[in-house]
Amino acid sequence: MTLSLGLALSACCGFRVFVPLLVAAVAAKLGWLPTSSGFEWMGTYPAIIAFSVAAVAEISAYYFPFIDNLLDTVTTPASIVAGTAISASTFVDFDPMLKWTLALIAGGGAAGVIQAGTGLMRLGSSKLTAGTANPVVATGENVFSVVGSLLSLLVPVVMAIAFIVLIAILLYYLLSRIKKAATG
């Protein structure tokens, strides 16, 4: 169960870095989300305040065309770090070596693949519409991040499976684009 929860929350970090962290922090504070040793700080008021400010700033910045594309260069590595951290925080009673290995591969990988996919979608939107459709893309990402994070707490196994399918589709698309670029 904690593996599914960690994977699902970390995948949401690929849509927005700080929204899943905020949702996890509030859930930890309310006692709905047990955190692994060393991550008790997530359920504190300072963490909730910091994640709230960061989430609002991140969400707001994505509504400015071309700044959103620049922001993707920063949020791609940040989403991998956040995905790794949030999944590690949920892996209660795991051996530390296993916890961090799974967190990096599954959590960081899930966040990174989804962030790459959304970044390419925004880049395509910028090319096709000169950035005018980017706020629509940003709104979709915000909805996926918020709703996905909340559903990850409620039905983690279902959300993990849904995100695994989405990641497989994105990987297929990304790899086919790379192959097409290499051959053509």
Task: List key phrases describing it.
mainly alpha, 184 residues, single chain
SSE blueprint:
Blueprint: H1 2-12, H2 18-29, H3 45-61, H4 67-90, H5 96-129, H6 134-154, H7 156-183
Helix pairs in contact: 1-4, 1-5, 1-6, 1-7, 2-3, 2-6, 4-5, 5-6, 5-7, 6-7
Structural features, described:
The protein is mainly α and 184 residues long. The protein has one domain. 80% of the residues lie in helices and 0% in strands. It contains 7 helices and no strands. The chain has helices at residues 2-12, 18-29, 45-61, 67-90, 96-129, 134-154, 156-183. Helix 1 runs antiparallel to helix 6 (134-154), helix 2 (18-29) packs antiparallel against helix 3 and helix 5 packs across helix 7. The longest helix is centred in the middle third of the chain and has 34 residues, at 96-129. The chain is globular, with a radius of gyration of 16 Å. The termini are far apart. The mean pLDDT is 94.
How many helices does DSSP assign? Answer: 7
Number of beta-strand segments:
0
Radius of gyration: 16 Å
Helix content: over 70%
Helices and strands, in order, run as HHHHHHH
Largest sheet: none
Shape: globular
Class by helix and strand content? Answer: mainly alpha
Number of domains: 1
β-sheet strand percentage: under 5%
* End-to-end gap: 44 Å
